[in-house]
């Protein structure tokens, strides 16, 4: 007798059955019950785990400004003998940058490996705006992410103003770090090109020039959101900046 995890009887086999019988469960369990009154009666069966096709669709479209993709079950090992793909669609007037934070794959010469698996991968994507296409406030709602000036790491265009609004859920604080920073130098007041960080309606800090990697960090911000603004004039455009942020639960520090 064979039944699925929903207790639905799939089949009941008795007497001689020379041909193979294939059963597929509707969930994560498959029950097989064997009962015999004769010691000479026996059977042989094999099983194979199959991943639900809906878990790893062939085509996933994301229209957000940023996000992440990862192999199934990451950071645990992915299942064997499977194929996944992601179709990431960015915003109009932008190009997509894909950054792989971790790649650990099993080695095989061709096709899909049915025996060995590894952690897989995790990657983040970001819509990077092209010349003149950075005139709106970008909403960032992920728990972590990164963003950059237009055309980074190439020189940013002139006469643009961009903004990134990072939402901070209740019970969380933010860590913001500028990994690269090369903006036109124009005095301590930064009257030409600049990057400005503001939050809580009473804090604002504006910077320009060259800052070493990690030299500008904004830590332990307790607010509903934090806004990063970038502005350039028509003169002396530079490489720009790249920044990363992480939202951390306040309970994690107790």
Distance separating the two termini: 53 Å
Strand fraction equals 35-45%
Shape: elongated
Report on the biggest sheet.
5 strands, mixed
Rg over C-alpha atoms, rounded to the nearest angstrom: 27 Å
What's the number of extended β-strand segments? Answer: 18
Uncertain regions spanning at least 5 consecutive residues: none
**What is the subunit arrangement here?**
single chain
Structural class: mainly beta
Task: Please state how the strands of the largest beta sheet are arranged side by side.
Answer: 9-11-17-13-14
SSE topology string: EEEEEEEEEEEEEEEEEE
Helix content: under 10%
Overall average residue pLDDT: 78
Number of helices: 0
Give the secondary structure arrangement, pairings included:
Elements: E1 2-4, E2 9-11, E3 30-32, E4 61-62, E5 66-70, E6 87-88, E7 94-104, E8 120-129, E9 137-140, E10 144-148, E11 161-167, E12 172-183, E13 194-199, E14 203-207, E15 209-210, E16 216-221, E17 225-231, E18 240-249
Parallel strand pairs: 4-6, 9-11
Antiparallel strand pairs: 1-2, 1-3, 5-8, 7-8, 10-18, 11-17, 12-15, 12-16, 12-18, 13-14, 13-17
Question: Mind explaining what this structure looks like?
Answer:
The chain has 254 residues and is mainly β. The protein has strands at 2-4, 9-11, 30-32, 61-62, 66-70, 87-88, 94-104, 120-129, 137-140, 144-148, 161-167, 172-183, 194-199, 203-207, 209-210, 216-221, 225-231, 240-249. The strands form five sheets. Strands 9-11-17-13-14 form a five-stranded mixed beta sheet, with no helix packed on it. Strands 10, 12, 15, 16 and 18 form a five-stranded antiparallel beta sheet that branches. Strands 2-1-3 form a three-stranded antiparallel beta sheet, with no helix packed on it. Residues 56-100, 134-248 form the CUB domain. It comes from Desmophyllum pertusum. Keywords: Disulfide bond, Repeat. This is Zymogen binding.
């Amino acid at each position: 007798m064979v039944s699925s995890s929903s207790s639905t009887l799939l089949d009941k086999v008795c007497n001689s059955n020379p041909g193979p019988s294939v059963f597929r469960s509707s969930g994560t369990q498959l029950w097989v019950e064997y009962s015999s009154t004769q010691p000479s009666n026996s059977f042989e069966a094999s099983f194979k785990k199959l991943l639900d096709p809906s878990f790893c669709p062939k085509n996933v479209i994301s229209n957000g400004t940023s996000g992440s993709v990862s192999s199934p079950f990451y950071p645990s090992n992915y299942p064997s003998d499977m194929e996944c793909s992601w179709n990431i669609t960015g915003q109009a007037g932008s190009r997509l940058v894909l950054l792989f934070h971790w790649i650990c794959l099993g080695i095989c010469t061709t096709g899909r490996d049915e025996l060995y698996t590894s952690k897989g991968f995790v990657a983040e994507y970001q819509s990077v705006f092209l010349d003149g296409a950075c005139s709106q406030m970008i909403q960032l709602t992920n728990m972590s992410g990164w963003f950059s000036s237009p055309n980074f790491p190439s020189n940013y265009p002139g006469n643009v103003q961009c903004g990134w609004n990072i939402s901070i859920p209740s019970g969380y604080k933010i860590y913001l770090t500028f990994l690269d920073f090369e903006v036109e130098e124009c005095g301590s007041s930064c009257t030409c090109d600049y990057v400005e960080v503001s939050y809580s309606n009473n804090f604002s800090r504006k910077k320009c020039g060259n800052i070493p990697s990690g030299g500008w960090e904004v830590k332990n911000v307790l607010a509903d959101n934090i806004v990063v603004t970038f502005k350039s004039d028509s003169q002396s455009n530079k490489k720009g900046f790249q920044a990363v942020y992480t939202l951390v639960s306040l309970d994690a520090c107790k």
